[in-house]
Design brief:
Elements (H helix, E strand, L loop, with lengths): L15 E5 L11 E4 L4 E10 L2 E11 L2 E6 L13 H11 L17 H8 L2 E6 L5 E8 L2 E6 L12 E7 L2 E6 L12
Antiparallel strand pairs: 1-6, 2-5, 3-4, 5-9, 6-7, 7-10, 8-9
Length: 187
Amino acid sequence: MGFWSTNTDPKRQFNFKVTITGAGGKLQSYMAKTANKPGFTINAAEHQYLNHTFSYPGRLTWNDVAVTFVDPGSSGDSGTGDSASAALALLLADMGYNPPDNSATDYQTISKSKAVTSLGQVSITQMDVDGNELDEWTLINAWVTEVTFGDLDYASDDLVEISCTFKYDFATFKETGTDASGGILGL
């Protein structure tokens, strides 16, 4: 029976939160404006025989996840506050990037271990109209591959948005009342 003929609400796009446990604890859920849920692509391997082509499922590749944050800027005397820009700049340093300055840090590089550890756990949670969690995607071994710190425009009243792209090894899915240990998607 369809949701339109019952007294239940379907999932709504605007009822979600993004939780990132690392990044100095400064990327807050309320900063997320948009988020892609994880998706995957299964490559096809083909075998040709005479006038026929046979397809077989190949390797699975998880698609990147993009999240757009609104930058609330800084608050307080220290100037750190809840700045998403500052959190992402600090994240870059925690991943192992240091601008060259003829010091011992010139030889450090970004590593997957540092990138995953500094970002922490990334999860995207879908909620119902009462704020109860319906389902949750968790990105396993996620790290940032791209950040765009937004655009500036004298003719615009829009808020500054920061776009982030995350790469990850795989994702787990957990629906309310279920255990995600049942499989790679937790189904």
